Predict the structure.
Amino acid sequence: MEAGAAKVKAVKRATLARFGGGVLDLIYPPTCLDCGAPTARHAALCPRCFAKLRPITAPYCPVLGLPFEVSLGPDARSAEAIADPPPFERARSAVIYNEVARAVVGRLKYGDRPELAGFCARLMAAAGSDLWAEARVLVPVPLHFWRLVGRRYNQSTELARALSRLTGHAVDPTLVSRTRRTRQQVGLSADARQRNVAGAFTAHPDILRRLNGRGVVLVDDVITTGSTVKAITRTLKRAGVDKIDVISFARVVTGGESPI
Ligand SMILES: [Zn+2]
């Protein structure tokens, strides 16, 4: 019932968007993505909710992008990166996954606010500033074909497209596909997550020619244990890709707020 109503609203919104922002603002005045308070522009949080987002800024682990309480020097790695070095080179995330980030990601997944990807991508572009120096191809974490059919919308693809517009790097959602259907990762332990996604992905047979020497930046909405992006990285490496980084909007930080 609610989902249907939201879809109708999204369609109306998209139709109205064709008539320009002025008319859209009159009929649907911009409201906060989380609490619904009036805002100055569409796809934004009100100042109170925006202040509740916790951006990940330096100092952080140069490998995993996990925030440090205090600076331990430029080469200091997190205990997690030392104990279990990831197959990718670097991961960066814009914000810590908390209540507000959860609300933003929830709306992004649902797809009733397509302009929301732009909001997230602006924060991601800044968080990944050290990834953009060389030519890269942005590759969204794929959904399985049948899940995409059911949802009609891959939030990671929307994020990658918005990030491409901001950074100027190419996006190619066809370089990796999810060839085995997997259970939802939510509620699974770290070990179970790893088993769940092992061997689930396939690289495009022509990937090296398509990359033409450019490295890959995997794009995801939330990184929890990292098992999905690690599995994709291993698949890419087997296909001969050697430079792989990761960027997400939100990152679950152990001991932080609101685990999934
Ligand atoms: Zn708000």
About this structure: The domain at 31-251 is CATH 3.40.50 (Rossmann fold). The longest helix spans residues 2-17.
